[in-house]
């Protein structure tokens, strides 16, 4: 497809549903070929078919972003089958709603592994490509990465970590012309929100967040300036 991202390979984690699916659709509509990463093969295939139905290009990759070795192997497979990645969107996430005193070690580690470790593993795996091309990293954080929320201690800790990682990498990669930014959404109408905050009344759709992600992924004159790095876009509806 033609568009401002024509010829660009974009990797999107957590692409099988919700915000990740919406971002993948938007990136493909802008011309990118999208590497869809998630654990659910069937759901990934469905998203790939949706994108192909409107003329976009997408390839599914079944990956658990908490597994460093699996992430490295999947990144190598992307390199073997697609053009070098120029955009990486770290969207995979997990939430836990529970009093802190009742959180088990395994639950704590799982939430940090998906949200924070996964963001680190995936970004690291593609740095060789991104630093060659002056690429863009977009991390999906949360308002919970800016504020505290009762019963979401693990999730808040993980998303605060994503914000800190974003800012540190932005400085580290500035000389390589790699921009690293985060989006911090408020309540978005997704299954994960309903799990983490039952009874919430979301003010935004996944596509609202996807629009911001595509802006950050797109170079000037249609998207974010190259100098925009280390930013955390608060989108609260």
Short description:
The protein is α/β, with parallel strands linked by helices and 237 residues long.
- The share of residues in helices is 40-55%
Look up the CATH topology.
Rossmann fold
Q: What is the name of the CATH architecture?
A: 3-Layer(aba) Sandwich
CATH class: Alpha Beta
CATH H-level homologous superfamily name = NAD(P)-binding Rossmann-like Domain
Query: Main sheet, how many strands, which sense, barrel?
Result: 7 strands, parallel
Instruction: Give the tally of structural domains.
Output: 1
Question: How many beta-strand runs?
Answer: 7
The fraction of residues assigned to DSSP E strands is: 15-25%
Give me the strand/helix succession.
EHEHEHEHEHEHHE
Tertiary shape? globular
End-to-end Cα distance, whole Å, is 31 Å
Describe this structure in words.
- There is one protein chain.
- The chain has one domain: Rossmann fold (3-Layer(aba) Sandwich), CATH 3.40.50.720.
- It is 45% helix and 16% strand.
- It has 7 helices and 7 strands; from the N terminus they run E-H-E-H-E-H-E-H-E-H-E-H-H-E.
- The protein has a 7-stranded parallel sheet with strand order 3-2-1-4-5-6-7, sandwiched between helices.
- The two termini are 31 Å apart.
- The mean pLDDT is 94.
């Amino acid at each position: 497809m033609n568009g401002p991202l024509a010829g660009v390979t974009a990797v999107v984690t957590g692409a099988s549903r919700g915000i990740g699916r919406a971002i993948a659709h938007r990136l493909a509509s802008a011309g990118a070929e999208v590497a869809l990463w998630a654990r659910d093969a069937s759901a990934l295939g469905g998203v790939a078919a949706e994108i192909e139905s409107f003329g976009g290009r997408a390839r599914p990759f079944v990956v658990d972003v908490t597994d460093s070795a699996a992430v490295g192997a999947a990144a190598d497979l992307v390199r073997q089958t697609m053009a070098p990645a120029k955009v990486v969107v770290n969207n995979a996430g997990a939430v836990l709603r529970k009093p802190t005193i009742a959180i088990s070690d395994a639950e704590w580690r799982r939430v940090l592994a998906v949200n924070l470790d996964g963001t680190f593993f995936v970004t690291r795996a593609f740095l060789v490509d991104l630093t060659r091309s002056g690429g863009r990293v977009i991390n999906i954080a949360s308002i919970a990465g800016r504020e505290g929320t009762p019963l979401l201690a693990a999730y808040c800790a993980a998303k605060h970590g994503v914000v800190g990682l974003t800012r540190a990498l932005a400085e580290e990669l500035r000389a390589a012309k790699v921009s690293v930014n985060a989006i911090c959404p408020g309540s978005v109408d997704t299954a994960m929100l309903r799990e983490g905050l039952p009874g919430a009344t979301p003010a935004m759709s996944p596509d609202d967040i996807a629009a911001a992600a595509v802006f950050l992924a797109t170079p000037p004159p249609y998207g974010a300036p190259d100098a925009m790095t280390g930013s955390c876009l608060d989108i609260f509806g």
